[in-house]
Structure formats: C-alpha cells, structure tokens
Design brief:
The protein is α+β, with helices and mostly antiparallel strands. 49% of the residues lie in helices and 21% in strands.
Length: 670
Amino acid sequence: MTSVELRRWVMVAGIALIVLIIGADSYEAWADYRRVKTDNQNLEVALSRAVTEQTARMIQEVDVVLSSYAAWAAAAGEPVDDRRRRVLLEQIMRLPFVQSALVAGGDGRVLASTQTEPADQSLLHSDAFTAPRDDGNVLYIDRPDGAADGSRTFAVSRRVESGAGLFAGVVIARIAPDYLAKFYARINVTPDTSIRLMRDDGATLAQFPAAPPRPRDRNIEVAEKVDGYPISVAVSRSSRDVLQPWIQEEESSAARTLSLAVLAGILLMALRSALNRQERIDLEKLRLEQELAGIQRVEALGFLAASVPHDFNNVLTAIIGYAELAGETAAPGTQSQQNIDRLLAATERARLLVRRVLTFDPRRSVSYRPTGIGPIVVEVSEQVRATLPPSIEMSLHGMDQAIFTLGDPTEMHQVVMNLCSNAVHAMPKGGSLEIHLETLDVRESESLALGQLLPGRWAQLSVIDTGIGLAEEQTMSIFEPFYTTRSTAHGTGIGLTVVRNIILRMNGALDVSSRLGQGTRMAVYWPITAAPASTPRQARQVEAGAGETIMVIDDEKELVALTEELLASLSYEPVGFSDARAALDAFQHDPQRFDAILTDERMQPMGGLEFAHLIHRAEPDMPIILMTAHRDAQIDARAAVVGIVEILDKPLRVQTLREALGRGLKSARR
C-alpha cells in the first residue's frame, strides 16, 4: 500500500470513527429521551389512577348520601319533613370536602340549607336543578361558580322523586375545589406535576397548582376517567420540566462527545501530519538514494575515467610534442605545415575530450575564481551560430549584464556548449534557440531537478528551444551517464552528465521543463559572487633558455627523449632519466650541475612528489616543476608541502613549457 493510499484510508477511518462517536452518542441520547418520556408517562398514569380512585371515593360518598335521600323520599311518597331534611344535611356535611348542601322542592324553592339562614332564591334556572329534573336519575356535576365570600364551589345534585315517580325536587351538595387541590398537593410526588379534575366537556372543577401552565410550555398529559361519573382526572407535566434532567445530562454528554470528537480530529490531523511528514521523509530518502546511486555510478565512472587520461595524455604529449617540433622545421604555407596544423587541431579536440572525461573524477583538482557568465555565453553562441542550419534562429538576451560566479571558464564553457548542442539536435526540422541571462533573488529553499536553490542571489541562464521536447520519464534520466535520445551516430550520452558534474561541483542547480512536441527549457542556476578586483595588465614576458641544465625524469623513455628535444629547442641543456633513483644518485653526486628539475608524477618505483621531497631535503631552493597526466586535489596539496613551484598538465605544449621554466628559473634567481 502506497503512502497516499495509507493516508486516504487513515482519513476515512478517522472520519468514520468521529461519525461513529457522534452517532453512538446521538443514539444513546434518543434512547434516553424515549426512556425519560416513558418513565414520565408511567409515573403520570400511576398518579392519575391513584387520584382517580380517591376522587371516585369522594364522589361516591356524596352520591351515596344524595341517593339515599332521594330513595327515601320516593319511598315515603310524601314531602320530607324538616327533621328528615336536617338529618340529611347533617350527614352530608360530615364529609370534609363538602362546603354546603341544600334541598329544593319541585318548584325550585330552597326547602333546607346548611347556610345560617335558608336562601330564599329560586333554583328554577340553575343547571344543578334543571339537569336532574330533565335527565332522570343521574348524578349531575355542575361547573364551578363563585360565592359572595369569594370562595369557589361546584355543585353535585340528584333528582328527588315522589312515590308516584314524579319529580319532587333536588338535593345538592357543593364541593370545595380548594379541599381537592390540597388533597392533590398531598399526594403529588413531583413538584412540577399538575393535577386537574374536569368534567367530560373539559370544564375544570379543581386543579393543583392553581396557576395554569405557561402557554409556551408543551404539556405531557395523561387523563383517567372516573368510572360511573361524567368527570375525569388529568395529570400533566411540562415537557420542559420533564426533559430538563435529560437536557442537562445530554448537554454534559454532548460536551464529552464533542471533546472526544475534537480529540479524535486533532489526533487524526496529527496522524495525517505525521504521515505527510513521513511521506516527505520517504520521498526525500528516495531522492537521496537515487542521488546517491547516481553519485556512486558517476564515482565508478570517475574512477574508471581517472585511469584512462594518464596513458592517453602521455600519448597526446608525444603526438603534440613531435608535431610542434615538425612544425618548426616545416616551411610556412606548405602542405606539410597545413597537415601539421590539422594534426595539432585534432590533438586539441582530443585534449578537450579527455578533459570532459575527467569531469567524472570527483578527486580532480579545479581552482575556481570569479568568472563572468555573459562573455562565456557570447563566445559559445558565436561557435554555435557558425554551425547552425538556416532553419534555426538564435537569439541572446541579457548578456550585457556583469554577472559573476565562482567557476572555471573552461568548465562553464562546456556547460553552455552542451546545452546549446542538445537544443540544436532537438530541432531537426528547425525552430528557435533563445538564451536568457538574468538574476534571481531566492527567499525560500527550493529543490529542482538537479540541486537545490538556497536563499540568496542567483544567476539564471535559460536555454530554450522549440524542438521535439521530452516525456516526463525522460527528464528523470537525461543526466544518467550514456543516456541519450539520439542515435549512436549522433551522440555519446555523456554531455548532460558532464553538465551535471560541473554544476553540482560549482554548488549550482538546474531545472528542466519540457513537453513532447512543445520544446524544452533548461535553466542553469549559479550563485552570484562579487566581481574580481581589476588589476593592470602586464605584458607577458617569456625568457628563452640560456643553456641552463634541466633534469628531466619520466618513466616513459619516449617522453624523456621528446622532452629533451623540446628543451633543446628552447636553448636549454637537458639531462634525461627514465629511472628516478638514477636521477637522484646523479643529483646527489653533483647537485650544482642542475638549474631546475622537470619530473613526472606517476612513476615506478618512486613518484615525482617523493623524488621532489628527497631533492629539497638536500637543496631546498632547487626549482622543481611537476608534470602529471591526471591532476587531483591530493596532488595539489602534497605538491605544496614538498615545495613544487608549478604543476603542468599533460599533454604539454611548447609554449606552456617555455613559460613554466621561465617562471621557475626566475624565482630561483631571487
């Protein structure tokens, strides 16, 4: 599983976990909500049944007394006398919830009352009188009404019949709702519960608490009918009061769930960040591994390349030396002179080819100095322009800027030349080649196809063509040794590898942007350095030899002979040795004989540096010039220690040898 897939699955699993936490809490909250409502309903049902049963007993007690009086009056068949009425009233007033009672005749006139003075008003138009008269033998419960003293009661009445079954009046008991309310208050198990006694038509007879529920509250109500009577008991609670504990609990639970969800989210983001960081580390590790593999391949190639130039440069030294000697004897303008010039031109190309191969050697010695980029690009462009076909147009931009970087002019020349050559070969049908030089201020580090841009000022050299372009997979391989998109007859595949080695050695960078059929842009980045301090030009002074004796040591006898001839042509007296030990014996036998020593470095059994060390132990001021076919940093360091005055790179040119000996002998005379 790739890191991208792992990160995706982690995100899905994390989101699923958060959803699961919220879902589980929501389900638990819904279950608690249902439980709270069920528990409340069960409580209200139980309470309503208890209140209903007790209310039924109270009404039954009143009904029994009223029914007994009505039955007795019917059995007597005559109006009840005052004594019987007083007994009835005394019996019914024993009930604590009855406030008053009265008996009315068939004409509605009050015959007896528990009031201090019998009321003289008529009940003819009262519902407590007319309902029993018209509906027969039923217990009628009237609506509550107010008395003169401010108290409220509701009437309970029954029909009184004569012996013949005719309507003879009513007996009425007035029940005090306050008593019932106090009774409801005593049996109420929850302070936020409302108990209401009401008629079947919804009219309230008694209520606890007295204040009606708030309109904004939604009530949860359970009603229970009183069997045999037109009344029922309703028990209700405010939904807000019922759900308040649940709401408080769920608020705490929601806070916990939110905390868990936030924690899970933080952990998820932390895990995602860790995976992203690990992915970046893996990508960086892969990049470094690929870079290390490339470096190892280049180093392997470098070690191989380091062994070739020594022998090859020795051969070139012989070719160049004898060609230059032959050129001195050839008449100007003759065919022989022309052939020698062509030979020297060919050896120059061979020398440059060896120099390109040596760029693969990480140990080789290179001294960098502030070098102007623009003049090198202009020089390369002139060389390229001379070979361009008419179908390709070339343009330069920004070359008039004085931009310097630490580098070797020859190496920088190779970089620009390789990039331009590749661009030209990428346009077989023609196109345009543009070269731009500009400065760039970098504020944040940025990794490119090759190297890394660090904060600072950089020179950007862009080589842009309109050629065939590169596929994405090709851009990852173009810097590999011997990789090429051209046929074997048109390239070796080491050009961009040379570019790669030089740029990395100069602490530069390179970026590639290309698309098939749309061309390629190669952008080289070099760190900008200050311009070199200007120094007055001095005329080159080359002193010819004056018969000085020069010791020559090289394990190649042919090169010893060639060097002797070159020195003789320069008016020196050469003494050649192909064995360093023999040369050392000759020097120790007569050290005053020699004015300077010219020695090769790589010899058997004694190298040039070891030979120089032994010479300087005896004669510290003896000028020694070292020749080498392969120069690296280690040779430079050791040469400085043993007192080498100058190092010459093979293949040698006559002019180079003349100048080096002139400087060496001049320093020895001081």
